[in-house]
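Feature request, filed as a ticket because there's no other form

It would be nice if the structure record came with a short human-readable summary line next to the tokens. Right now we just get the raw output. Example of a typical job, pasted below so the devs can see what we mean:
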Amino acid sequence: MKPLLALLALSALAFPAIAGSHQAPLDVQARVVDALADDMRAAEESDGVPAHLEFQMVDLNGDGRAEVIVQLLHPFHCGSRGCAMFVFDLTAHWPRSLADILASEVKPARTATNGWRDILVDGRRWTFRQGRYRVAR
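Raw output as currently delivered:
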């Protein structure tokens, strides 16, 4: 796992983060790399090129602690509809997935549902219901 962490640290310097994002602290990056290790390994094994992660830290539930929106950039995880993106709650020891999304852009909305900020996935509103983000009805 250490080569992945080293690569992550270098890629964070080489690539800009998602629009409007705040650089994720290294401990957050390491926890997310651990959670996405299988996905990152599969990407690298597909063509020998390591995947790149972009982070957006945002407090989605108003508890004063940021959740993280992560975009996994690699041809193995990207297509015509965008790239694999994840929303993680970081309050527990292991990041808890709140959404697994294929999109070009995920950003927090100004509205909220059930105490959590809605998110805009390629402009479409998703709301927090039953412990996860889902397409708004």
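Something like this underneath would help us a lot:
Residues 1-21 have pLDDT under 50 and may be disordered.
The two ends are 40 Å apart (CA to CA).
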